[in-house]
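Continuing the series of single-chain predictions for the mutant panel. This is the parent chain; the variants come on the following pages.
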Amino acid sequence: MRNIRTYILLPVVIFLLSASLLNSFAGTQGRHTARRYTDTVTACLPAHKSPTGIIISGCGDSVRALEPFCGVPGGCMHYADAVNKYDETFGDSIRIYCMVIPTAVEYYCPDTARAWTRDELPVINGIYEHLSGRVRAVDVYTVLGNHVSENIYARTDHHWLPLGAYYAAEEFARIAGVPFRTLGNYDSHVVKNFVGTMYRFSKDISVKHAPEEFIYYTPRDVEYTTTSIAYTLDRSRRRVVSETAPVEKPFFRTYADGSSAAYCTFMGGDTNLTVVRTSTQNGRRLLVLKDSFGNALPGYLFHSFEEIHVVDCRYFTKNIKNYVGDNGITDILFANNIGHACSSRTSNSYNRYLTKGIN
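Parent structure:
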C-alpha cells in the first residue's frame, strides 16, 4: 500500500511544484521584461559604415547616424547589482527605480546593417530580471517602441530627443504614482539646423548635410528655481578638481540656430549637481542618478515632485547616503542609457558614492 500511495502522490506533487515554479517565473517575466520591437520604419533603408564604424542609414535629408551596441546578455549584471546595493542600503525608506534607456540603433537600424550591432533587448531584460524585489523597473523600451515613427531620437546626435524623454518620464511618473502633465501644458521651442555629435563621431559628410530640428518643451503653470554646483574637471575629464558654491541658474539654457550644443539645453550639460525646487507640494523629493540621456527627463517632472536633485554618474563629490538623508529624498531613479549600464565604470561610480568620505 505504501508503494501504491507513493506512485499516486508523486506525480501530483511534481505537477504542483512545476506549476508553482512556472507561475513564479511568469510573474517575474511579466513584471521585469520588455516586449521586442519590430522595425516597420527603417528596416528597408540602405546603410553603410562610416570610416569610424558608425552605421549610416538613409540618404539626403533623412540620413541617420547610429552607434553600434556591443554589449552581451549577462554582461551588465554589475549595474543591477549596484542598483540592488542602493535598495539594500536604504531599504523600505526610499523608493528605488531603474530605467535602462535603449539607444537609437535598437529601433532604427536597417536589416542590412543588423550584423554590425547587437540586440539591446536581451541585455535590458537581463538587468531587469536581476533586480531585487523592491526595485521598480521602468520599461521605456516598450514605450518608446510605440512611438518610433515620431521624432524620439536624434538623427545627427547620439542622444534621444526631448520627445522621447517625455514618453519615458510619463511612464516613470505612472509607476511612481505621481501627477504628470501632458505636452499640452508645455511651450515648445525650436533650435533649427541642429547637427550634433554624430558628425564628429562618424566623420561622414552626409551627416553634416542633414541637419534637423531640436525641439524642447518648457512647463507652464508651475513655479520653480534651479540651483547648481558647477564642477571643474582635470585634463582627462574624469576627475573633479574643484567646485563652485551653489548658484541659481536657469534649468533650460538657450542656444542659437545651428548650434551643435543644443542638447545642453538641459542644465547646461553634465558637469554639475543641480537641484530644482518646485511649487508642487506632495512630499515627494526625487534624486535622479543619470548620464547625459537623463538630462532631458527632469523638465517633465516639475509637476510631479517638490524637489528634483540631479546627479551625474561620473561627477559627484559627496557621500550619497548623507545627501539622501540631509535632503529628505523619498525616491531615487537610476536613468542610464544601455551603454552606461554596461560600463563597469558607471556601476563602480554608483558604489563609490555610497562609501565616499568613509574611512
